[in-house]
């Protein structure tokens, strides 16, 4: 493997940062209502309808969802029991509004103009069985000298999703260029991350997409591919993760970061 490895920060410091990242990831994924707690994703079709294992009725309306329930159903929204019909406003692509149902949370969300209910349960089998994400050992060869090249203006990039028919809209702010068995380039989004696949995808890493943080200061930067991490869809079938832009489908292997957890 031919790489250009940084010397601006000691490798041992990078290794310590990687260990701290691993601990943070484990804690984040272990949260009671985190991604490992998902047990269902239900798409609403229009008028009031019942949903398996959920009380009340749910209706997709313009800009949100109407929930009808009685006090006996034990549904809580914004700290108050629901008794009658309430409206839950949604924002396209944003994290959903959480409706409480005992220990469970029902996330009311909107994707590509469609409304859905995503159930989060602390007793989910995936959360109970979780012992950590499998990961490649830290490899200094994947700590790379790179260059971030900003766009003069941000550009909208529309990508597909793991759920057929959905689309995700992102603002791209530039590209990061680096050498890994030859010159490579990734489109970087406004959140400072690049979504990508590579030659390990579907083999030792998830077949959908991984994400890596990219410094967005113009000019020389350090790209640490050891920090490549899975999106939620690697852990659950109830996520709606974006796929990477076509430009970010690398043909080289990135045997660094998180592996396929399933």
Automatic annotation (TrEMBL):
Gene source species: Kineococcus radiotolerans (strain ATCC BAA-149 / DSM 14245 / SRS30216)
Pfam assignment, any one: DUF1684
Name of the protein in question: DUF1684 domain-containing protein
Lineage start: Bacteria, Bacillati, Actinomycetota, Actinomycetes, Kineosporiales
């Amino acid at each position: 493997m031919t790489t250009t490895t940084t010397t601006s920060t000691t490798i041992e410091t990078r290794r310590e940062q990687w260990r701290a990242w691993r601990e943070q990831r484990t804690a984040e994924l272990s949260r009671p209502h985190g991604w490992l707690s998902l047990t269902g994703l239900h798409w609403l079709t229009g008028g009031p309808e019942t949903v398996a294992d959920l009380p009340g009725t749910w209706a997709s309306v313009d800009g949100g969802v109407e929930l009808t329930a009685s006090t006996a159903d034990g549904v809580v929204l914004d700290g108050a029991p629901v008794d009658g019909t309430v409206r839950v406003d949604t924002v396209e692509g944003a994290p959903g509004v959480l409706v409480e149902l005992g220990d469970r949370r029902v996330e009311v969300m909107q994707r590509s103009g469609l409304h859905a209910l995503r159930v989060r349960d602390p007793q989910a089998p995936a959360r109970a069985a979780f012992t950590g994400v499998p990961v490649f050992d830290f490899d200094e060869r994947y700590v790379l000298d790179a260059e971030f090249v900003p766009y003069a203006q941000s550009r909208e990039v529309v990508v597909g999703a793991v759920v057929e028919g959905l689309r995700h809209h992102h603002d791209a702010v530039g590209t990061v260029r680096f050498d890994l068995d030859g010159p490579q380039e990734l489109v970087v989004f406004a959140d400072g991350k690049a979504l990508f696949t590579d030659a390990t995808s579907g083999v030792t890493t998830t077949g959908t997409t991984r994400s890596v943080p990219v410094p967005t200061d113009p000019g020389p930067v350090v790209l640490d591919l050891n920090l490549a991490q899975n999106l939620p869809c690697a852990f659950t079938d109830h996520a709606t993760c974006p796929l990477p832009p076509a430009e970010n489908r690398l043909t080289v292997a990135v045997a660094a970061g998180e592996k396929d957890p399933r």
